[in-house]
Amino acid sequence: MAFGVCTSALAAQRASPLHGAYLHVDDVADSGTYYIYRYRVVNAPDSRGGLAMFSVDVSAPRGTGFATLPATGGFDHGAGYPQVDLTRFKDHVQVGPISPPNWRAILGRGATLAWYGDHGGFEGDIDSIAPGDSLSGVALRSPYLLGIRRSWGVPTFKSCCTEPRPATASREAEHPQSSEFELESWTVGPSAHPGGLNLTIIRADLQQVCGALRWIADGAVCGPLQATLARAAAAAQRGDRSAATDALRGFVDALDAQHGPGKPVNDNAYWLLKVNGEYLLTHM
Fold this sequence. Notes:
This protein is an alpha+beta fold and about 280 residues long.
C-alpha cells in the first residue's frame, strides 16, 4: 500500500519526490507481557529521493495516559520530560520503540511515533532510505492489540527543498520544509479498543482489508473469510459458544492457508487478523 497524494499547498506546484513508501509488518510476536511489532520500511523504486523520516499513529482516547515501555536505541518522549504541560499532548498507547543503528525514535505532542536518521547529514541526507531500498530492525513493544493505523513518510531535504520559494511583498525567499511533502498511508500498529476487542471490530477490519486497503485483493478469498466471520458472529449472538469458536478457528486456519509467498493475504492483513482472531479464541 503506497503513501497517498501529498496535499500541501506547495505540493500543488511541486510533487513529493516520494512515489511510495511502506511501513510493512514482518512479524508480530507475543512475549507474554507485550507484543513485539517488527517492521520493514521500504522506499518505492520509482521515488526520486530518499526517505528521511517515517512515523505511525499511536494515539489513544483521552484518559489513556502517556506510559511507555523500555526503548532500544535513542528515544525522546515529549510527555516524559519534567514539568511539561500534558494538556498540550494527545494520549497514546503504551509503547517502547526499537531502533536500528544510526536511527532514533521520537514520540511528540501529536502521539505519532517517528524514526529518523541521527548520524550525519542534513534532514536525513546520509541516514535515509534510498529509492528501491529498505530498512529492517524497526520495531516497537506494546501490550495493546493490533489495529489499522495511519503512517507517514517524509523525504530528505535534498530531494525536495533546496530550491527556495520566491520572495513576495510580505515575506523573504525561504526554503520549504520536508514535512510539507509527507505522504500518508496505512499500516498495522498497537491500538486501543474501548470496550475490548470483539468480532464486530475484526469484521470491520476485514472489510477495510478487502476494500480500500486492498491488503487482500482477491475477492474469491475475501468472500469466504467474511462469511466465516459472519457465522461466528451469528453463533455468538445466539449464545452458541462452541459454534462461534469453531467458526473463528476456521477463519484463522484459512488465513494461514492463504498467507505466504505468492498468496493473496499480505503480511499486514495476516498479522492484523490472525493475532486478533487468536486472542478472541482464548477469550470467548
